[in-house]
Amino acid sequence: MKPSRRDTESHYGAHLTRNGHQLRSAITSGPAVLWLSVFLLIPLLAVGAISFFSRGAYGEIELPLTLECYKRLLGFGLLGFDPLYPVILLRSLALGAGTALLCVLAALPLAFFIARLRLRCRTLALTLVVIPFWTNLLIRTYAWQILFAPESWITRAFHYLGVINAGEPLYPGVLAVAIGMVCDFLPFMVLPLYASVEKIDWSLAEAAMDLGANRIQVFRHALLPQIAPGLLAGIVLVFLPATGQFVIPDLLGGAKTVMLGNAIQQQFGQSRDWPFGSAIAFVALGLVMLGLTLYARRGAKEGPSLL
Amino acid sequence: MKQSLNLAAGLLYLFLYAPIAVVIVYSFNTARFGARWTGFTTKWYGTLLDNPAALSAARNTLLLAVLSTAIATTLGTLLGYGLDRFNFPGKRFFSRLLYVPVFLPDIILAVALLLFYSLVRSLLGLFDLGLTTMVIAHVTFQIPFVAIVVRSRLAGLDPALEEAARDLGANGWQTFSHITLPLILPGIMAGGMLAFTLSLDDFVVSFFTSGPGSTTLQILIYSSVKRGITPDINALSTLIILASIAATIVITLLQRNQRAAK
């Protein structure tokens, strides 16, 4: 914090009155604050509000106010207990967590590999990670449909290894969705992790080795604490968007891989049950806010921020 | 140890690039259907140029990206400056709100806006789905990225530079236009590039807020994939991939210059 920052008397060498400060604040922050209030805050609140309404016979939104949508989401429908939506919720969390875990396992060697390169090669190696990051997710996802075609060598290899039963297709399926997710989200994990790995103080690892620690102990006690902030940032960046993914399960999965995002799309699309769709979206929003709050609280302790 | 690390890294790069490579390779495949390689051709790029749907989608995509980026870069830069320099009631709340679109699964923003548009339409008759609603939606997720980038650039500035200008007799506007603006320009450009790329890349938000006649390239690709992948879609995707690679290289070079300038 710079000393002159909060001092209204001398503001970057200018002398601002209270009114002058307010006027400048309104001119600069005003338009965007207004925009985000109208087109972000109100729509998100509207989702919450509509989730308590009922669906009319033709898909219109009407009274009475009810908790029916949330009951349905928990599995208590009109026809008794139906685990469809609790299962979708758990599946989304599991697929999100699984994706984050696999991304951690894949990003660790990649980040260490890049950090150990010479400076010039490092820029190239990083750019090679950034390019898929900026390449369209839709394109990178549908490409797996080609790679997972029944006659492709990948499918044959999976059959040969016995990962999937002979004659069973790889796509659409849970495995295809998981592979697509890890491929699409890997750069989100590598970039923050690399930022931490690059700053590692290796003398700590050397000291640990001198003191007789084995490789696992060195990693666990000398390296892991140093890369924890990057690891945590990467997990948040992967887990939150992955849980709400709609395109990847839509293109690579089927009925058995419906996730929160697909369920929301279904209700706003074919089913035309906007109150129920809003309820699912509002729960997903709640999960994201919860995750962000937990992360922010922890980040405040540890220091570095995400962006 | 070192060799196994290299091997793992090599395989992971292969994994990251396999989907990109397969799209590019299959855009030159003569086969109309299926994943079998039957021979080399460039004819799909020709059919693309004769495809009015693809051309109009490309026009819509660019128009949407240019309009939304222009609005979002202006508003986002002002917001970044305002958040860095001035206080207002609710500032903490809005600083937090800025991070919500960064992490929010895009489908939630998409349906929230779809719902909002349709509620306003039924009350006021505004917001028929089309290019306007798409521009509004894109600006909404672009503003935070621009504001965050510009704000962090401003936070890194030395206040002595502006104070010196004022001491030497420059007025507020002169200080801003001669000192502050040139110093944060790389940040504004990086934010703008980010916003532009995000708009070009967006499928989900566009999909929910588009109307008849405002199909973008992403929507076109999605509906084609749903019907079954065809080689001309691979050709279209290849062109988009090449554009992303070019953009990434430009951004990387910009950042390097920025760092060198510091």
Percentage beta strand of chain B: under 5%
Query: How would you state the average pLDDT of chain B, rounded?
Result: 87
The number of helical elements of chain A comes to 12
Number of domain modules of chain B: 2
CATH homologous superfamily caption of the largest domain in chain A: MetI-like
Q: Using DSSP, what is the number of strands of chain B?
A: 0
CATH second-level architecture of the largest domain in chain B: Orthogonal Bundle
Largest sheet of chain A: 2 strands, antiparallel
Radius of gyration of chain B: 23 Å
| CATH third-tier fold name of the largest domain in chain A | MetI-like fold
Shape designation of chain A: globular
Poorly predicted regions of chain B: none
**Quaternary:** heterodimer
Q: Write the CATH fold name of the largest domain in chain B.
A: MetI-like fold
Give me the secondary-structure topology.
The complex is a heterodimer of chains A (307) and B (262).
Chain A: H1 18-50, E1 54-55, E2 61-62, H2 68-73, E3 76-77, E4 80-81, H3 84-115, H4 119-134, H5 137-147, H6 153-161, H7 174-198, H8 202-210, H9 215-243, H10 247-252, H11 260-268, H12 274-302
Antiparallel strand pairs in A: 1-2, 3-4
Helix pairs in contact in A: 1-12, 3-7, 3-9, 4-7, 5-7, 7-9, 8-9, 9-12, 11-12
Chain B: H1 2-26, H2 43-49, H3 52-85, H4 91-97, H5 100-103, H6 106-124, H7 131-155, H8 159-167, H9 172-201, H10 204-209, H11 217-227, H12 231-261
